[in-house]
Amino acid sequence: MPIDEAPYDDRPGQIWFDGKLVPWKDANIHVLSHGLHYASCVFEGERAYNGRIFKLTEHTRRMVDGAKALDFEIPYTVEQIDAACNAVLKAQGLSEAYVRPIAWRGSEMMGVSARTSKIHLSIAAWHWGAYFTPEARMEGIRMMWSKWKRPDPATIPCKVKAAGLYMICTLSKHAAENGGYNDALMLDYRGNIAEATGANIFLVIDGKIHTPTPDCFLDGITRRTVIQLARMRGMEVVERHIKPEELDKASEVFLCGTAVEVTPIREIGDRRFKPGEITRTLMGDYDEEVRREVPKTLDAPKAYAA
Fold it and tell me: Of the residues 27, 88, 209, 267, which has the maximum number of CB atoms within 10 A of its CB?
């Protein structure tokens, strides 16, 4: 069986686990770990291009701040986590890869409260190509509407990349794939367009780029990168609440995220779109940016709201 098709618990190589590299198969946790039962867990998804992890420190800071929002502190500094991510990439012998740091509460306590549980951190890296097929990425993906909505920010820590927030994403993605679609588009609790199951969305309307205000879902690092790249091109980007019916006015629609990169959309429900010049330009600019030795985008904020 090709390595890329092997189960994720049965692959060669090493994973960084609580301060050291261990054999891949030995990177295990107990079934009574709090993070498994109560979602006290934060993670990141990162991509490496030409041996460099794109926006590594920005991702690490978000994970550290996310842990604090979930009331625990990762016992490593941002610099130590960055170094560990690079060590894993080197140990795996990868230059093009997906990198997954994850921190969680352990098994010392079992119940809603777990204040004295040990905090664990692991980092894995593996080869992962395009999220969608090359044909889908060039021609545009097909999306259906999700029945699940992004909840009120008073009910979830919406600025955090926390494991529990992805439950409805998995349900939505499964429903889409079962229906023959590539992904699903979610509304927010007010009925506005929010995001896909793991990516942010942009609409081109009358030559301007519109994207939902991330006030109840994650403000993606790739999202901010694409906005910067568009503005460097002199394109106008408008962040606002967007109603579903406004898709009727859109000439182009695309997703962006670490996994999907920049991917055009050709279908959302009964609406049809064609990848256009703006989408293709930003696809090219993003592909160039992630492989640039010294990124030209502006420095990101040093902190993230919890």
Answer: 88
